[in-house]
Amino acid sequence: MREPEPQIVGRARRGDIAAFEELVRGCQADVYRLALHLVRNPTVAEDVTQEAFLHAYRSLRRFRGQSKFSTWLYRITRNCAVDAIRRSARQRRLAQEVSPPAPVPDSSLRAAIADAIDSLPTELREAFVLIEVFGLSYQETAAVLGVIPGTLKSRMHRTRRLLMEALGEGEGADEV
Amino acid sequence: MRCEAVQRELSARLDGAPNRRLSGAFESHLATCAPCTAFQARADRIRELARIEPAAPVPDLVSRIMAEVQGEGRRRPVRQLAPREWRRFAAAFAAGAAAAALFVGGLPGVRRGPDPALATEIPRLVFESSTHVTSFRATFDIKESNFVPSPPLSYLNVRRFVAEVAFESPERFHAVIKDRTRYPAGPWPKNNLVLGVDRDRWSFEGPATCPRESLPDCAVGGRDVRSVQGREPFDGDALLPADIIVPVRTLSGWDRVRIAGEGSVIGRPVIIVELAYRDATPLFAYLRTGGSWRPFYPLDRVLVSLDRETWFPLAYEVLPAVGAERDRWAVQNSLPHEPPSRAVFVARARRFDTEPQPKGWTPMDVAHRGARDEGFSDQSLAGVTASGGYRPVLPADTAGLRPYRMGTFTSRDRPPDEALVSFTRGLSWLKIRQTRSWSQPEPFGDVGALATPVRLGRSGVAYYEPATTTLGRRMWIHAPGLDLYLESNLPREDFVRVASSLPVRGVVAPRRWLVHRLPGGITVETTSLARARAAAPYLLLPRSLPFGYRLGPVHVVRIAGRTGVTVFFRRPGTELDGVGIRFHQAAGEPLPPPVDPDVLAVRVRGVTGRYSPLRAELEWVEDGVYRSVRGTALDLTGLLRVAESLR
């Protein structure tokens, strides 16, 4: 995400709706992508994006610029996504009764890693997505997730080991 | 140090967070420990796999979000998911099927059907937008597949680049391409490129190249550094690749562009157009200045996502063409089989803006020593007038362009009184070169044998030639005591209008100017169809041509006492596909030795002929007459169809 101009953030904080729209225009794609990575469903990701901006609009006055605006917005997005995932866990039980899940046959390695990432616990997946896919630093990711950077170091190491195992590449697997 | 700790550190280093207090024990452990080296390779591979995932299509949610935000005062609730949608989402969660939705192609999803009225308007809309661009900055992520087929560069054999482009009208441009590929061991040259243009100066720096098939063994290191000074305005050789900003040249003719649909890129609505790679080459010009890149087949499909508001190309990707000829070409070019559904090249904007460049911005950061002098020197109108001994003629109508640079040339092989005046607005430009002392038996300026006459009203006759990949649309005018050469990227009708407002009266060119002498005693004479028929009574013409082709130039070609006739058919809107469809017929000539190594025997008009896929040429000898059809826009079926229609 490109860090918006501080003047725009400032104007939006003072209630300038056009400035806020500029922020939405500039950040919505990345907010949506992060949401999609976390919730894995385009329709829900759209709703999470909308909620995240609505939340940002309501709490913008409290944003004091201690962190980057993008980090702050990622944090809101992540929280909205976590809420959506919790909501869906309830719905999932219901849905499973309605229609049994059909596995999607796709043997490609891409699909394999996507599945492996999907099956990670949320706390590992969100760190992995922010660092590996979005390219955030440990410091920024720590600010988004509300953890200390050292925690991320362990999480990333654990995640990589889990993914290697999932791809059949744990210890002893053939050299690639 | 234990493996667990080393691998934890390797993981952190991959994320750019090394432990700086670590002793040399880490390095020495890694150097000798096979499991840790393997961990590193696998972690790299996972990164590659995770990042290879194409960016998902992003819907434009701005209006929806703003409607909610503006409704905040009225406390409207956030839109709730319909139960049906929730069920879908939940089911997807359970099945992991949502992954499928993520892995759809690199380009935005095509949403609605195209607007049929728009196709014909695109060149005009794109052109109009281009005249307003004064400043542009963008970052593109680029992925290129199959640069080297074997051994693979990486598991998926994808190279990745980040391109930063900055522009300030009319002629300040800077592009940096950074190679983000993780190359395997070996002297693989990083394909880092820098291109800078600043009015009369141009520079390029990239790696010294060698054939990609022989990498990395052929790499000798070193840099390819080129620079130019004394650059004339809008020089086609020291090119400013403006199509990366607004693809005016690429989309100059609507007839070869198909609207594929709509979508969104970085949250902005786009129109997706499809055209052949051959027609889209200006869009790739900034990559082709230097460095090493994979080749594309002329008929590969290029999908360009154009921003609906600004017409900036926010994404473009190349999809392999279908067919046996494409497959054969791939083999010849050391490429693996490339399925037509998978993009082999994707460039996608990560961000762009049109803010003015910061103060002190310079597009020239490559050392400028030893620059080649192109010999143009900027001058005032008074200086040009004094230097040439005449006041240059200027058009009364400049199609809204404003006066820009003018000057003279110091080069010895040019007329001593040659003057150049140029006009510009945004990305549009026009330049006029003129001389009063032209004495050569050929037209003045960069025009070839394919120019055709156009009427300019009161300004008489001009000869017009369409644009090429490096040259704009061109015209030459031969008037009593004055020869002019005009070049521009204005649409053809605007260009002709500007030329018609020149205070000159062009006359029909002397006949000997229409005879081109080529090496080997070959002469090519531009003539009329009637004269060609008289010279070659065996001449056949096609009854059936693909839509839009019209008769173009007709040449009588004389080689060593034999006479042949070449007839061209072109689509008026087509500027970049070379020469359209070319028929060459000559009596008493045998089938010449094949030029391509890979030719096919085909049945044509009852005889056995030869098809050269690379040249897109079909040749045969029929009743003692050698005949050939060549058209890069046609595949074998298309060539056979027009060949069979010859009467």
What is the topology, as strand order, of the major beta sheet of chain B?
Answer: 7-8-9-10-11-1-2-3-4-5-6-12
Major β-sheet annotation of chain B: 12 strands, mixed
Number of helices of chain B: 14
On the 0 to 100 scale, the average pLDDT of chain A is 79
Radius of gyration of chain A: 18 Å
> What share of the residues of chain B does DSSP label as strand, in percent?
25-35%
The assigned structural class of chain A equals mainly alpha
Distance between the ends of chain A: 33 Å
- Major protein interface: A-B, 70 and 61 residues
Give the CA-based shape of chain A: globular
pLDDT averaged residue by residue of chain B: 82
Uncertain parts of chain B? 73-117
- Count of DSSP strands of chain B: 29
Helix content of chain A: over 70%
Poorly predicted ranges of chain A (pLDDT <50, ≥5 residues)? 94-106, 170-176
Question: Into which percent range does the helicity of residues of chain B fall?
Answer: 10-25%
How much of the sequence lies in strands of chain A comes to under 5%
